[in-house]
């Protein structure tokens, strides 16, 4: 708990300052916003980064966390011009039961939002249609405010990957944009970082030696890029060498949000063939999930690797009828989507998806009531973005 | 440990911080805590029972007692209880509760209230 400041000296005769703060920090965001009107010192204090941080810590310690999920914009959704609902659902941490719905308060030119990530309850979105991901928004649903980020500082944007993270050392939210030129031969990517405190982008050098024989590289963007222990991670698939010596390789690019430095991380040694692999997080650690052919038809073997000092394969399990891997819950349950029935809507055949929570230890499965492809992230209440520049209330 | 300050309290005759009534509420808590430490649900129920007849205003006295006795768990519990009790109350209620007055300029307060008008929805009647 922070030291009481002189801001709250003018307090009641009854309770000492520190105690009043102990009470305030335990209040939900909606109450705190209203109580800013109690007096000047409360107005100022509730907006200080220190208080906001303590309030967030209290929420985290007392399990006031949720999940937020929304329909994932997919290629087929766009091709068939199916509208995106623009609704995000807040759901229980444990049961996935829907608690409330939030409508995205800003719109994109294409009408299709791309979910970049969530940090401490702040959500980051961009426009799906644009390869450049030019329009980026930060949204805090618990205080009903959002902000559109300023334009890029890079001269050209090509194929872009975005990442959203929180700099715990400086109490700052940051967005990273990596742009990969399509020129041949492919040069290394360009990168820039936006920080909320400076409200501006600045170019960041890659700082790692980019392999000179890389003919082609592509960011594996199945999921939003995991933010773990202060680092953002992207997996890059590459083709090295040409002609007869062509090799398919992958690497992990990691970005330390505090120091703003890139690093290369190795992938696990086991290079058994796999259909696909993706980076994610498992109980606060970087994880890699690989899908390979299973023994039974329609069954895939899912290998889970977790990064400690080095990669560790913690589990291999078969999953039937898998169509999509979404992520791990805080408790280490696997959230996937499975093939379900074909449904006819308006004389169009649409495949509905079954969303299933799987316990990797017991293999116990539980279906949850969501039948569309989705993006999921941890969500909680947060006062951040309260008094920022260019912030829009709604 | 927890009981040092309690002894001090009993030794200190000029103590105005803790009245007898409070003593019967706060002091049994450490014992109860130790007995049912593992079971959160039971503790919750016990705490609810304890506070059933206590008005939010009296919580202030309980908090001061717990603070004086340096009893962290009770302090956390009472602060949580006050937070729960006031979270849906109006700005006026909270001012009275903490003995505060508005020091905003005329019109300033109105402007601030407008900024988060939605946070005033669903507030308890005073």
TrEMBL record, chain A:
CDD domains: F-box_AtFBW1-like. Residues 9-56 form the F-box domain. InterPro entries: F-box-assoc_dom_typ3, F-box-assoc_interact_dom, F-box-like_dom_sf, F-box_dom, SCF_F-box_component. Pfam families: F-box, FBA_3. It comes from the Eukaryota. This is F-box domain-containing protein. It comes from Quercus rubra (Northern red oak).
Automatic annotation (TrEMBL), chain B:
SUPFAM superfamilies: Skp1 dimerisation domain-like. One of its GO terms (biological process) is ubiquitin-dependent protein catabolic process. Residues 75-118 form the SKP1 component dimerisation domain. Signal peptide: none annotated. Pathway: Protein modification; protein ubiquitination. This is SKP1 component dimerisation domain-containing protein. The lineage of its organism: Eukaryota, Viridiplantae, Streptophyta, Embryophyta, Tracheophyta.
């Amino acid at each position: 708990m922070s030291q009481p400041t002189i801001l709250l000296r003018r307090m009641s005769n009854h309770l000492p300052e520190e105690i009043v703060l102990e009470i305030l920090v335990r209040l939900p965001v909606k109450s705190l916003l209203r109580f800013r009107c109690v007096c000047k010192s409360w107005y100022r204090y509730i907006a200080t980064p220190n208080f906001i941080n303590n309030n967030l810590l209290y929420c985290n310690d007392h399990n006031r966390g949720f999940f937020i999920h929304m329909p994932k914009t997919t290629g087929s959704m766009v091709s068939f011009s199916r509208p995106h609902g623009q609704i995000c659902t807040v759901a229980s941490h444990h049961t996935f039961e829907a608690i409330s719905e939030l409508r995205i308060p800003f719109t994109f030119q294409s009408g299709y939002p791309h979910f970049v990530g969530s940090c401490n309850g702040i959500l980051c979105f961009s426009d799906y249609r644009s390869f450049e991901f030019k329009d980026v928004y930060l949204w805090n649903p618990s205080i009903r405010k959002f902000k559109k980020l300023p334009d890029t500082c890079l001269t050209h944007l090509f194929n872009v990957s975005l990442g959203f993270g929180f700099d715990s050392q400086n109490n700052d939210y940051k967005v990273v944009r990596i742009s990969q030129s399509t020129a041949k031969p492919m040069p290394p990517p360009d990168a820039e970082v936006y920080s909320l405190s400076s409200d501006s982008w600045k170019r960041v050098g890659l700082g790692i030696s980019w392999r000179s024989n890389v003919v082609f590289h592509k960011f594996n963007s199945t999921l939003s890029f995991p933010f773990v222990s202060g680092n953002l991670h992207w997996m890059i698939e590459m083709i090295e060498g040409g002609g007869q010596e062509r090799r398919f390789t992958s690497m992990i690019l990691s970005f330390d949000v505090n120091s703003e430095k890139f690093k290369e991380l190795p992938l696990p040694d086991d290079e058994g063939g796999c259909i696909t692999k993706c980076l994610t997080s498992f109980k606060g650690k970087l994880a890699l999930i690989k899908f390979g052919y299973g023994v039974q038809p329609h069954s895939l073997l899912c290998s889970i690797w977790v990064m400690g000092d080095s990669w560790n394969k913690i589990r291999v399990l078969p999953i039937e009828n898998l169509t999509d891997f979404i992520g791990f819950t805080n408790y280490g349950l696997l959230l996937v989507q499975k093939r379900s029935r074909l449904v006819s809507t308006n004389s169009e055949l649409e495949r509905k998806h079954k969303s299933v929570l799987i316990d990797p230890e017991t293999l116990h499965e539980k279906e949850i009531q969501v039948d569309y492809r989705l993006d999921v992230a941890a969500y909680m209440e947060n006062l951040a973005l309260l008094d920022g520049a260019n912030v829009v209330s709604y | 440990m927890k009981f040092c300050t309690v002894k001090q309290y009993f030794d200190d005759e000029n103590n105005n911080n803790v009245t007898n009534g409070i003593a019967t509420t706060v002091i049994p808590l450490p014992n109860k805590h130790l007995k049912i430490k593992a079971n959160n649900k039971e503790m919750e129920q016990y705490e609810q029972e304890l506070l059933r007849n206590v008005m939010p205003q009296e919580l202030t006295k309980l908090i001061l007692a717990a603070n004086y006795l340096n009893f962290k768990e009770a302090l956390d519990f009472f602060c949580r209880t006050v937070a729960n009790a006031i979270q849906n109350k109006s700005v006026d209620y909270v001012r009275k509760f903490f003995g505060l007055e508005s020091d905003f300029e005329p019109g300033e307060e109105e402007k601030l209230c407008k900024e988060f008008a939605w946070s005033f929805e669903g507030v308890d009647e005073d």
